[in-house]
């Protein structure tokens, strides 16, 4: 397995009945997102807190990809909003004589 960069986390995603698991590397910030927390709660119900090996997320790969896209989209929208707000505030402080 490849080493995971600081600030990132490797997870195994999949359902046994769908043929196994696929490894993904996600930013640790996902752990604080409400949608991802729901998935962690499901993982706890299925596997408990004490497992050997990587964090396993019990959802289909397709569902995980949709979840990841939704989280990334929300983060990008938030970053755009914050950028626009900073720009607006900078323009508001300019005075023209």
Automatic annotation (TrEMBL):
Name any one Pfam family assigned in the record. Answer: Auxin_inducible
Which residues lie in coiled coils?
none
* Name of the molecule in the record: Small auxin up regulated protein
In the record, the note on similarity to other proteins reads:
Belongs to the ARG7 family.
Matching entries from InterPro entries are given as:
SAUR_fam (IPR003676)
Q: What biological process terms from GO does the record include? A: response to auxin
Membrane-spanning ranges:
none
What PANTHER family would the database entry show? AUXIN-INDUCED PROTEIN-LIKE-RELATED, SAUR FAMILY PROTEIN
């Amino acid at each position: 397995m490849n080493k995971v960069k600081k600030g990132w986390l490797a997870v195994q995603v999949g359902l046994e009945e769908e043929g196994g698991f696929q490894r993904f590397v996600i930013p640790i910030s996902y752990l604080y997102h409400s949608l991802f927390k729901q998935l962690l709660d499901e993982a706890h119900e299925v596997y408990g807190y004490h497992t050997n090996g990587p964090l396993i997320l019990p959802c289909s790969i397709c569902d995980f990809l949709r979840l990841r896209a939704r989280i990334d989209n929300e983060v990008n929208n938030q970053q755009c909003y914050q950028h626009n707000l900073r720009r607006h505030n900078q323009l508001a402080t300019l005075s023209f004589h």
